[in-house]
Amino acid sequence: MKDEETYTDWNFIDIWNIDPEINDGYPYLFFAVPETYIDIGLRVFNGNRVVAIACETSAGTTSPLRVAKDTDDDDTPEIFGVALVEPGDSAESGVRIQTSSGIKALREF
């Protein structure tokens, strides 16, 4: 019950997430984890300017798009989620990606 493959027809892109560190490993709704965005130094050029991209903390990652960054001296990278929003959202960066649930935009920090 703690494996995404167990849940057929569940939307693990927009509605549900599953993480062994959250909710004792069982699925949880995205909105059940508070939105906390941080700046880890991820920058992209959106065709007009360089923008800072919002990331989710490793403890509250709900995004299917993840990046790893070495944050301390132990050489173990920390995983961050790249925050995604719907195209047209006031927080969108102007950079869009294709996901299994359609086009999403990277959230500007």
Distance between the termini: 35 Å
Point out poorly predicted stretches: none
List how many beta strands DSSP finds: 11
What is the strand arrangement across the widest sheet?
3-6-8-7
Number of helices: 0
> Whole-number average pLDDT?
83
Strand content: 35-45%
Major sheet? 4 strands, antiparallel
Residues in helices, as a percent range: under 10%
Defining traits:
four-stranded antiparallel sheet, three-stranded antiparallel sheet, globular, mainly beta, 109 residues
List the helices and strands and how they pair.
Blueprint: E1 16-17, E2 28-29, E3 37-38, E4 43-45, E5 50-52, E6 55-56, E7 66-69, E8 78-82, E9 84-85, E10 92-99, E11 102-107
Antiparallel strand pairs: 1-2, 3-6, 4-5, 6-8, 7-8, 9-11, 10-11
Structure description:
- The protein has 109 residues and is an all-beta fold.
- It has one domain.
- Helix content is 0%, strand content 36%.
- It contains no helices and eleven strands.
- A four-stranded antiparallel sheet has the order 3-6-8-7, with no helix packed on it.
- The chain is globular, with a radius of gyration of 15 Å.
- The model has no long low-confidence stretch (mean pLDDT 83).
Quick synopsis:
The chain is mostly beta strands and 109 residues long. The protein is built from no helices and eleven strands.
